[in-house]
Amino acid sequence: MISVEPLVISGRAVLPLVEGGKGISISNGESAGAWAAAGGVGTFSGVNADSFDDWGALIPQDYFGRTRRERHEELLAHAIRGAIHQARVAYERAGGKGRIHMNVLWEMAGAERVLHGALDGAKGLIHGVTCGAGMPYRIAEIAASYGIHYYPIVSSARAFRALWKRAYHKHKEWLGGVVYEDPWLAGGHNGLSNSEDPNHPEDPYPRVRELRAVMTEMGLPATPIFMAGGVWYLREWAHWLGNPELGPIAFQFGTRPLLTLESPISEEWKHRLVTLAEGDVYLNHFSPTGFYSSAVHNLFLKELQARSERQVAFTAEIVGQHDQLFRVGPRGRAIYLTQADKARAEGWVASGFTETMRTPDSTMIFVTPPRANEIRADQVACMGCLSACSFSNWAQNEAGTTGKKADPRSFCIQKTLQSIGHGNHIDQQLMFAGHNAYRFANDPFYANGFIPSVHQLVERIGTGD
């Protein structure tokens, strides 16, 4: 048994237990409101959240614009409407208890417009905004203009120092806390830097201690740090509580709230969670955002792996060892491969991977005709859901493009997350999860197929288990 003392978060003393925000329709108003009603901090996703009509029917996020810019505007309208709806649901469900936060990704399309639209339309209903996936410099100014707290998500002290120096020092009174998200263990997108090895996880304690030292240097010794990623049993983190090296600590749970009665994910997805084994969550680099991300290693990710493995470097003329003629495309265009790569390419073609697709890196992948058609269709249907997308080459700039060739080794993240979020073919879609998800299978709390309510889960976490 451990003692969990209340902590002032977004202006109120609450349990230092925070629901982690999960994008699209996975963290919604029902789950966030229930978490707040249990005395903690509930977080709904402001990333293309679901909205409903006056009769309670889901409003489909369909797109009718002929151009990406037109579809982009439709997407932002969907996002703002959905965020307002989920804020209202969360607020009503909370019943005046706890705190309600909205989570957004700085690299999502029109992040600033979505924030303004949601905060204008849900005034008084949202107490704080968490924001990561990038360097959200302007989140401080935006939150301060609405009189609410902001919570940047970082994975290093260095990142927080940069944010503080550039922008946050101007609005420090509204800095409600800093979310340290473990870049190796957290689910979803991860903040690994170029200097960090994805295959060698680092202990979070010294990294958070360093973050606290920087925050103390900036005059923030009492501002809470939210530990996110890899948290399961609080008893395993008892040495963090009341620790003067770390200061006030709250704990954020992203994966455990997936398996609750209020969680909106499908029953199939919930059942899959309790079957996972250690190592079934895979840290990969396929996301069109350019970030690493952690997801269940299912057929979706295995296909992406195989797609990249069927890849060769090529030249347009004979250069060094690239002296083997190989013809591609319906017109039999000539390219040159190494002798070893030509043998591999001929084997792939013989196995049915007859379509070639160029990447931005002067390489070529081999896929089946149906897969090539799907990739091209998804690229054409792009609605600009990210500020910059490697898969479609969309960018939220005047030109509307990254200026690079679209990358067929990636995927349409909006399409797959909308699909799995609404109960479609979980093995064929991106299934985000933290690396501790395998613990569902052995945690006695979930024995015999038990799925708790959010209230029961928060109560259980508070005991240390």
Give a summary of the structure in a few sentences.
The protein is of the alpha/beta class and 465 residues long. Helix content is 30%, strand content 17%. The strands form 5 sheets. An 8-stranded parallel beta sheet has the order 3-11-10-8-7-6-5-4. It has a 3-stranded antiparallel beta sheet with strand order 9-13-12, with no helix packed on it. A 3-stranded antiparallel beta sheet has the order 14-18-17.
Main pleated sheet? 8 strands, parallel
**Average pLDDT reading:** 92
- Reported by name, the CATH topology of the largest domain is TIM Barrel
Order of SSEs, N→C? EEEHEHEHEHEHEEHEEHEEHEEEHEEHHH
Structure annotation, total helices? 12
Q: Helix share of residues?
A: 25-40%
Provide the CATH architecture of the largest domain: Alpha-Beta Barrel
Shape: globular
Q: Report low-confidence residues grouped into runs of 5 or more.
A: none
Number of domains: 2
Classify the secondary structure makeup into a structural class. alpha/beta
Strand content: 15-25%
CATH top-level class of the largest domain: Alpha Beta
Radius of gyration: 23 Å
**Number of beta strands:** 18
Strand ordering within the main sheet: 3-11-10-8-7-6-5-4
Terminal CA distance reads: 8 Å
Corresponding CATH superfamily of the largest domain:
Aldolase class I
